[in-house]
Amino acid sequence: MDNKIDKADKRASAGIASVAAMANIPYVTNHTFSLGVGVGNYRDANALATGAQYQITESAIIRVSASWNTEDRGVVGGGVSYGW
Question: What CATH number has the domain bearing residue 36?
Answer without folding.
Answer: 3.30.1300.30
